User: Fold these one by one.
Assistant:
Number 1:
Amino acid sequence: MNKWETNFAKLFINTALLMLLAGILLGCLAAASYIWPGFLKQDLGFISLRPMHVSAVLFWILLGASGCVYFGLNQNLPNSINKHLALTQWALWIIAIMGIFFSYFQGKFGGREYWEFEPIWALPILAAWILFLIQFLVQARKMKNWPVYVWMWMTGILFFVFTFTENYLWLIPGFRKEIIGDLTIQWKANGSMVGSWNQILYGTSIFLMDKISGNNKTSTSKVAFFLYFLGFFNLLFNWGHHIYTLPTQPYIRPISYAVSMTEWVFFAKTIYTWKNQLSEAKKHFSFFPYRFLLATNFWVFLNLIQALFMSIPALNLYTHGTHITVAHAMGTTIGINTMIIFATAFMLYTNPCYNFLQGNKQLNRLFWLLQLGLLVFWVSLLGAGVEKGLWQMAESRGNFGDMMNHLRPWFIGFFIGGILLSIAIIGLALNLIWAYIFCRKYPEKEQELKPIE
Amino acid sequence: MKPIYFFLPLVCAFAIFSFRIYSTPIPNQPQFDENTLGQIAKGKLVYQKYNCQSCHQIYGLGGYLGPDLTNCMKEGRNGELLIKTLTQVGTTQMPSFPISESEMENLIAFFKALDQTGNSDPRHFIVSSNGMIAEHE
Ligand code: HEM
């Protein structure tokens, strides 16, 4: 098979891994403000560290998701990726990343939550995704009877382009004048955008499962398509659960409440397939890509219960604006998105040239450290959130500063959990990067994974 | 049935839904004159330029290190003075900002208008037994 082509999956995943390493470092620095108030305030400070962290880890997810799709495309359609398009897509990302971090370092902002950089840098990102969409459609058209994951990739890429554009409607002053309308559109776009990269990554996990189990039963079944459409329906219409307390169009609240509750179906499905998975798990547990997918299932389970409860408006009054939301945001982006990209990365780099995967004690420890660190991290954020939630709903509230001081033990747990999970991520990422370098040194030993029949 | 027959209707429904949201004004909102509307649009940009959102929230949305600012201009709070002093001298966590006079004017106008759009305090909602919430009259 043509090496150069699989390299696009590697190019994107490697670039993503670098963003991840930067992202966790910046996350730990940002979290330091919770422990030592005013940490680096005169230099970078939380004001710059938070956006830098969030941008870096979002780029990890977006570049990682792109790498996952390239991996899948190449497995399904060997030797067909348009190199110029793919390379231009990557180059646009590099331009955006350099511009964004350069302006963050200079203390220049101007954007909005999660996209706090100067809006001009959104242009190369948008252009990169449009190229990605074109690449994908050109390739996928060659496939007949798309398995469900191809539908999910298409949906994810297409809706990312749409929601990312929608996310910048505020540049038009007319949209900004309507304060509440503007906020509504902002969280409509952000909510659906998360859904779109989730489509890409859930699709990837189905694709990987197919490869591991050696058949395509899951990806062509009616149940898989039903769940895909349910997920898509939620992507389109559930975003209102982010803004229950906003005095916006009155119909948004009941619609998003009702739509969100359909996700109990996913919950029921997870429980229903649990036992099957256990027996399968025994078979493949030593295989790292599989193990990361199993970890994903565990975190889907925990995060889904949490999300379902948070989507009940009466409970959302307690959870909204608290660290419960942060627990949800990082619980899903780490527990689900990051685990799936790791699964893909390990799959990509598992080959006879660097077979570091079976029974490797060090990797084993890193895997469990990641799970443990994340659990400490997540529970601490939940704890802080519950306390703040009770404070914000209490009949007579104390002072904000006193409440934050009170949360300190939770923040210390959050910080420690963050450091543990950072150590694990650094170890895993270095292993992957090392595998990449090692295989380049001995290309003759490298054998690609066989494409799907 | 082919998946596309499910995909397209969903996309159409979404397009109609989105268009409705962009085009219909939000009910029960205060009416501002053109001049104030211009200030609101500029004031929001000041909020973004100095990245207040990395620590503060509006209707519970934003960063989590500082308090929600939706109603910081509420009557009887002297919010204008609070904003001016705090952004000038900062606090333990909050840095000081080189906000110009005209920027400050727009920022204040934005916060004043924001306060009139509603109440971000979750305690004012009435909860019903099906889990739904409604604004207190
Ligand atoms: C793969 C790893 C990570 C991912 C994908 C991730 C993702 C995110 C996301 C999406 C947010 C925005 C949350 C929101 O606004 O609700 C966030 C915020 C944050 N993250 Fe992470 N994160 C990661 C690792 C870490 C680590 C290791 C730390 C260190 C303790 C950390 C500390 C923080 C802090 C302090 C915030 C800001 C919370 C606030 O506004 O107060 N993150 N992260």
Number 2:
Amino acid sequence: MPTLEKDKPKTNRIGLTLADYKGAESTLCNGCGHDAITSQIIRAFYDLGIEPHRVTKVSGIGCSSKTPNYFLNRSHGFNSVHGRMPSVATGVALANRTLLNIGVTGDGDTASIGIGQFVHLIRRNVPLVYVIENNGVYGLTKGQFSATADRGSKSKAGVSNPLPAIDCCQLAIELGCSYVARSFAGDPKQLVALLKGAFVHRGTSLIDVVSPCVTFNNHPDSTKSYDYAKEHEELLHEIGFVPYFEQVTVDYDEGTTQDVRLHDGSHLRLKKLHRDYDPMSRQGAMRLLEETRESGELLTGLIYIDPTSADFTSLLNVVDEPLATLPLEKVRPPKEALNEIMEELR
Amino acid sequence: MAPSYAVTSGLPCLWSTIPGPKTANPPGAMRLSPSRLCLKIDLYHGLKKEKGGFKLASTIETAYAEEIADRNPESQVNDFSIQVATVNGSGSQSSNTVLMRSIFQMGIPVSGKNLFPSNIAGLPTWFTIRACKHGWIARKKEIDFLVAMNPETAREDVLSLAPDAAVVYEESLKLDQIRNDLIFYPVPFAKLAGEVTKEAKLKRLLANMVYVGVVGRLLSVEIEEVRKAVLKQFKTKVKAAELNISAVEAGWAYAEKNLQKRDRFRLERMNRTAGKIIIDGNSAAAIGCVFGGVTVVCWYPITPSSSLCETMIDYLHRYRSDKETGKATYAVVQAEDELAALGMVIGAGWAGARAMTSTSGPGISLMAEFSGLGYFTEIPAVVFDIQRVGPSTGLPTRTSQGDILSIAFLSHGDTKHILLLPSSVEECYQMAIDAFDLAERFQTPVFVCSDLDLGMNNWMADPFPYPEKPIDRGKVLTAEQLAKLGKFERYRDVDGDAIPYRTLPGTPGGLAAYFTRGSGHNERGQYSERPQDYRNLMDRLARKYETARKWVPAPVVSSNGRASGIGLISYGSSHWAVEESRHQLSVERNIETDYLRLRALPFNEQLRSFVKEHERIYVVEQNRDGQMASLIKLEVGGDTGKIHSILHYDGLPIDARSVTDQLLQQEKGR
Ligand SMILES: Cc1ncc(C[n+]2csc(CCOP(=O)(O)OP(=O)(O)O)c2C)c(N)n1
Ligand code: SF4
Ligand SMILES: [Mg+2]
């Protein structure tokens, strides 16, 4: 019997199905926040119709760092070493500037062992979608506090964390990051829009996603639990992403909606909620994060964006085509060049 | 096809066109053959050859017979060493280079060694120039001609000299009161410099150029060559060149008028340097990288490796901009540390770039984890280690070969790496090119183990040949090839050489993608903890290392066919002292030796047979623990009792006399 048109799986603009963007079966715990993020990553790539072979996935070590295996199995993936995803991602970006590079790490991976590399990647504005799956613990090594655990948050065994949390968003803004967002694994709608914006943005796009660890940090005294996050989440704005290939002209009120045009013609449409917040102001972003640090709110949304920033490969003035595959005549100077050098050394 | 070594093939010596210190003389060599020299010694000193080795009938404290033969008691021509003792940061480097160049331009083989402190300014530094008509370029321990410019070390410097040495010194230091068996030349350096300039800072710099004039005059350097060398040194800075030439002339004139030549050292024009270049190993390696098609360079500053990447940046800038767009066909990153540097190189190599980093001991330690990742996940990377003295910070500005053992197995777990061991600046150049080919061919990190002596000192060399072979990108499948194959398994040994195929990110067609992980994986790159999968992978990696034996540069063996039972083995910068020592042993003691110079790990069959064929093996190297000797023992197994070490590890470059003395000592004790 021929398949009816309506029974055919839905496809995106390049004719791929959602399943074409999936990866291997997840081996994480049932209900782990990381899996929820994986679903939105798959969704974002599908919606934008990005060709999987143009994507690279890199990660460090941790439960979170395993997830690149669970999406886009038609893309090259690299699960490297603990805390060093940023350097590997930098190398990939330099070798081939035509790729869309997504890095997934954990809060241990980024805020402890790898914080040096995190800092320097951002400082260089390496083109990379940098997703922190932030659960406040080391999941893979079974529940030790991480450096993003809030002060006073308790471990499963009841021990209170005495140290202040490192806020990766605040640090990123301080370092000049040009796309800084915070989200929550339990808020798929917002997350998918932020991911799409990040895919299009040039330079480092940081998304710090609260991603509860159901096994080690989802108890009532934890500030990184589903319940706590749901209760304390406050949306900065309602966020929508309009890709360049889908320019629908909807009326929106200038007063209540802010439209951020990205370099390829796509837009991030931010509908104002309770506060009047401009994500294009760096000082405003710093002030906001400082305020919420004290109030304990979980503020989510696009915290800061500079859509005009120049990424690292542009700063280095690297040729447009991938360095990886330049032909011999472009990477080996002619004989005369060697002769000239030798002449100078005589 | 294995990489060819046109530069050194057959001739283990840098001086491939110089009829010089080779045990086997090249065709057309004019000098006395070692056998004839040995005969002479036999007559003089009654060396007797007995079964199983040599009995030493008498001791000879003098240098080579050749020297004895042609030495005129009045003068010692083109065969002595000059040491300049100055203060770090006083601009002495330019003066030293100018003096060395002038001698080079007179056609006399010359080598220079800079002994400098880990300090920017103010601490003592010594520069030794060895002029040697025979072409020996290893360090010579004895100083014949001292230029004492540093008040702090002057006394000690003078006390360490052998009788009859000459000393040029700043008049006010009154060094002539310390000893009466030396020849002293007092010079009012400050005053002479003051006549050239009134500026205090310049005066200090120019005082060093004044010494070039004084020494030049005393040693009969041709003044025209000094002028040329100054112009070369200061290139476009015409004003500076003029000032410096004036300083040279002031020294020259002073010596002419006031100093009566009383020492026996003299330079005389020869024709042994025509067409040659002078370069340090780091610059040579940098040129190799630029012509080897490097595209990503990530480094973190550390002495003595920094100049490799810094020089490379200059050359990349000059020669690697795209003709149409003017954009760079390379990317250079000064990383935040060595860990990140190798991480970037691994990331870039994975994505298909020819990527390299350069470092020294402390950086190598930091690179351990990524080295293991590169080995286990099979990603090309090129790492230069310009070895300095460890452990820890050690002596940062002194030379050693102390990282060999840790690099050979760098990282945890069963890890073995490919090492290249350049001995000369030509090999620094050639092996840089080969390192990229090998890294991509074998999909693994390749370590080029140079050292401070080779990397930072100036060496004479033949001009480097333009690479003839195209670059080897190894087994990389394109979209078209994949489509034809219909499937792709990243870690399967398809060809039986244990080298799998890889694909690069960005390859279209849907078949190219695979997942790279430092955790256990099967042939398809999937996560696996299955015992059999792990063993298969580890066994294949071991077989891949076996394949590499045939590809890496083979050792260079030299023998004059009159083997005495002694086989010497060395590598890297130790080579030059070993060559000279073999000559000493031959002419002074009538001891003939065979010699194998290692050029890479893994070793090949030649090493095994060399060890087998000789009664006693001496492995000469610059570290305390005999690191290469240990690796050789591991390799050859069996009768390792015959493998002995000759070691040099005081931070100064190894010299021939130390090798000879240690060998004789050990031979005596047998
Ligand atoms: C050099 C090194 N040290 C320690 C470890 C052990 N280790 C593995 S994952 C991990 C922490 C992971 O925490 P996080 O990044 O927050 O990821 P999560 O599992 O919570 O997603 C640690 C300490 C390691 N793999 N490598
Ligand atoms: S341990 Fe925690 S972080 Fe790891 S998979 Fe389970 S729930 Fe997720
Ligand atoms: Mg975590």
Number 3:
Amino acid sequence: MAGSLERAKRGLYAEWRLHVLSVVSLAVAFVCLGAALLVVVNLHSLKERWGRIGRASVYLKDGAAPQQVDALVAALKQTEGVREVRYLSPADARTAALGGGDPTLKALPQDAFPASIEVDVAPEVPEADVAMIVSKLGALPAVEGVETYGTWTERLGSLLQGGTIAAGALAAIVFGAVLAVVASTMRLALTRRRTEVEVLRLVGASDGFVRTPYVLEGTFQGAIGSTTAVAILAGLFFIVKSRADGDLSGLLGLDPIFLPLSVMAALVGTGALLGALGGALGLRKLTAV
Amino acid sequence: MAHAGGRAPLTPFFRAGSRDALRGAPPGDAQAKKPVLVFDGVQKVYRQPSGGDMHVLRGVDLVIDRGEFVFVTGPSGAGKSTMLKLVYKAETVDDGRILFCGRDIARLTDESIPFLRRNLGIVFQDFKVVPTWTVAENVAIALEVLGLSSRLIRQRVAVALERVGLSGRGGDRAGVLSGGEQQRVAIARAIVGEPAMVLADEPTGNLDPALALDVLGLFEEIHASGTTVLFATHDRTLLDVRPRRILVLDEGRVTDVQSGLSAFAEPLAGYVDGTNDVDVEVAHDEPVVARHARASRAARETREERRVRRAG
Ligand SMILES: Nc1ncnc2c1ncn2[C@@H]1O[C@H](COP(=O)(O)OP(=O)(O)O)[C@@H](O)[C@H]1O
Ligand SMILES: [Mg+2]
């Protein structure tokens, strides 16, 4: 084993240009994969965050009597899981909307803003229960319509699903590319090291003895390539994050997150494994001299 | 002990520990009269891509005893390399048997080939030295495949390099060495594992005449220390350096010529009537090249010349 490591090191050293080229291509492939995973991870955390917020706006008909509204507010306050109920008059809604100081909004008439009841549901309440409350509210005569963030979460969910499928497809492509790159690098290294293999055969090296260094070299390449990719991604991520700090997190309602440690470890591990596989693949045609 | 059936062995070619017993004893030793290599009706046919068959060996029989130094010669394309390839199993016989240390290597499985080769030292015309490795690494590889400790490897590599006159060069990159030096590295690699036999396929083919004699001298020293040597060459000037057993390969058959009693090798004709008793006394402290140059001169000297020289 020590001898194999030594020979792998000698091989990497002697053909360092070839191996650097290979590592760079692997890093590029893994940056693509890592970026896709980064998107998926953030969509997921976004869905987690928004999916938990049970919030509904119950828009009231213009002709709704104040008693009806009061009764509704009282009934909602009694409902299990409801944390807060707040009546928003058209004037309140207008001030809230104009908080941004948008001049086009200011031009809108008073009745463009319907009165509503804002309902906060505890995060523990399952989405199904929230949906039931919503459908019941929608049937009431004073209610014009109910809006929840459920559709938001749904859309985010389907986006996440799409992202996951895309990342999966990308992963398959990247894995194939990594195997091909390592295998062809090894084949090239092998033809350049014909004499070495010939000598090993002549002095009675076993098949495993001949192959092990090449598999080790492939493993190093894969591991170094994927580690470099993770480092590049981390660098880019933190640069982008520091530039777009306030706006981005304000928009999304949370800070974008980097790949969790487990995902980073999995990426590097996969790189090493694929490298080893590619190395072994490149030696398929290694026959006796 | 009788072997059950003719099944090819899957076990290592030689068990650990038995290797030392296979080392050649010095020539003349009573124990030395044991065959290391036996060819028994060996036939080899190459299938040509064009379709025709080429019978390179048509029933070769020979016995090489432990501690012998044997030349294989014959014109280019006679099948010298093929003969050696059959021994280290780069090629397989089509008919007949080859016994190496008593075992039929014609029936050896692919898995056993490495174990066979660990008992052979092989030297080629084109050196086959890894240029990016150091001299020591090139020699050490023959011991690394045996799994010896690095301390033992270092010791034995140093001894082998000293034997070929390269002590102190172990750290140099093999690629920067001259042809003659690279061949010395290859020879050191061939002998460092103390093999039962050393095979040399035109080892002097890429070297100028002085270096060729030098390398031949190295093989003779290796032989003198007890190793069996099979040396293939088409270079007749090497054959007449001193009386030797010569196997002449031609037309697919071997003519065994003991001690230069040959009609084939013209420079050896002087030995035939026995009057040309070449006496080359070897001074052991004499440089190898000078020694062989003198031996070569002595062997080439005709009876007439000698009488003239002695009379004068
Ligand atoms: N692998 C091969 N396939 C077909 N023919 C071969 C092969 N190897 C050698 N030969 C032929 O066999 C003959 C003997 O070759 P070789 O043993 O190399 O001769 P030598 O070493 O005496 O010059 C040559 O005619 C050569 O062309
Ligand atoms: Mg030849």
